[in-house]
Amino acid sequence: MASKAFPFFSFTLLLLLPLLFQAVLAYSNEKKPSPFEFLQHLQGCHKGEKVKDIHKLKKYLESFGYLSYSKNETHANDDDFDDFLESAIKTYQLNYNLKTTGTLDSKTVSKMMSSRCAVADIINGTTGMRSGKKRQHPAGSKSFHTVAHYAFFPGNPKWPESKSHLTYAFLPGTRADAMNPVARAFQTWAANTHFSFSRTEDFANADITISFESRDHADGNPFDGPDGTLAHAFAPSDGRFHYDADEQWSVSVTPGAYHLETIALHEIGHLLGLHHSSVEGAIMYPTFTAGESKGLHGDDIQGIRALYNK
Ligand code: TQI
Ligand code: CA
Ligand code: ZN
Ligand code: ZN
């Protein structure tokens, strides 16, 4: 009986062996740890929910510059899907040309799980500029397949759909030599986006106003005298654009002076809704050297296209 059964068992075993082998292989592949595996379990999550490991998602988005709970440690570490998280996910989705659902849908999860460049998408503020040094990507980061690029303000503020033509005005007292450089910067943005611009004298009703301000000028963002901050502009649809009056400004590229037109290109980017980019050639890259000029980059134009779905 046993001798009769043996060939049968050994035969089936032989047949099953490759299958067994495959199963083991599949199992070992599955075990390959992905640091972002928690994302899979979070798929489908949306605002108002409280789900285990949401805090890991917050950490993930914080590490890439989409989220900052710096003032609120409690919410940084809890599992609440709050307004900030929803806004951060929307920004992420806009940056990667995904539908801006604000929920952790399957497409967003797979994008997040795919390995990526270790450089933050959103580089904060002007630190790179104050130090006068250029920010370096980590060695070898070029070999990652995902490229970090343009970014938006938290909540993706933008000009309404109906407002593709914007008017701008210089506030009384603006130095006359700044007007042409600013006009050229607007033309450059107009030539490369769906926006058009025209100058108006009616500064009280203009969409955008430009002025030179010094030190404390009552907008909550005092300038700092020579060097440091050069200019600033508010996110849509505020429209204020201030140059620091205490800087050396120049119409043409001049050693030791800041190029009015280049700085205007950057600040108009902010006015239209762009935050800083991690692409070095982009006008929205947060480093700029005195005595140089710079133009728009594909990344800047893509950023506006993505924000306005154009
Ligand atoms: N002014 C900062 C800027 O426009 C102010 C700022 C910091 C800011 N963080 C912001 C404005 C976030 C909007 C949103 O970036 S700056 C550059 C740089 C400055 C810097 O004076 O430091 C340029 C002005 F860094 F890109 F070169 C213009 Cl081009
Ligand atoms: Ca300054
Ligand atoms: Zn100001
Ligand atoms: Zn900036």
Please give a structural write-up.
The chain is of the alpha/beta class and 310 residues long. The chain has 2 domains: 37-113, Orthogonal Bundle (Muramoyl-pentapeptide Carboxypeptidase, domain 1); 165-308, 3-Layer(aba) Sandwich (Collagenase (Catalytic Domain)). Helix content is 36%, strand content 9%. It is built from 10 helices and 7 strands. It has helices at residues 2-31, 38-42, 54-63, 73-77, 83-95, 106-113, 127-130, 179-192, 260-272, 298-308; strands at 165-170, 196-199, 208-213, 231-233, 240-244, 249-250, 258-259. The strands form 2 sheets. Strands 2-1-3-5-4 form a 5-stranded mixed sheet, with helices on one face. Strands 6-7 form a two-stranded parallel ribbon. Helix 8 (179-192) crosses helix 9 (260-272). The protein is elongated. The N and C termini lie far apart (78 Å). The chain binds ligand TQI, calcium ion and zinc ion (ZN) (2 copies). One zinc ion (ZN) is lined by residues 266, 270, 276, 286.
Please tally the helical runs, counting DSSP H or I stretches of 4 or more residues.
10
Q: What small ligands are held by the chains?
A: ligand TQI, calcium ion, zinc ion
Are there runs of 5+ residues with pLDDT below 50, and where? 1-9, 11-21, 23-31, 123-146
Going across the biggest sheet, name each strand in turn.
2-1-3-5-4
Tell me the fraction of residues in β-strands, as a range. 5-15%
- Which bin fits the share of residues in helices? 25-40%
CATH superfamily of the largest domain: Collagenase (Catalytic Domain)
Structure classification:
alpha/beta
Based on DSSP secondary structure assignment, what is the total number of beta strands? 7
Written as H for each helix and E for each strand, in order along the chain, the element string is HHHHHHHEHEEEEEEHH
Give the overall silhouette: elongated
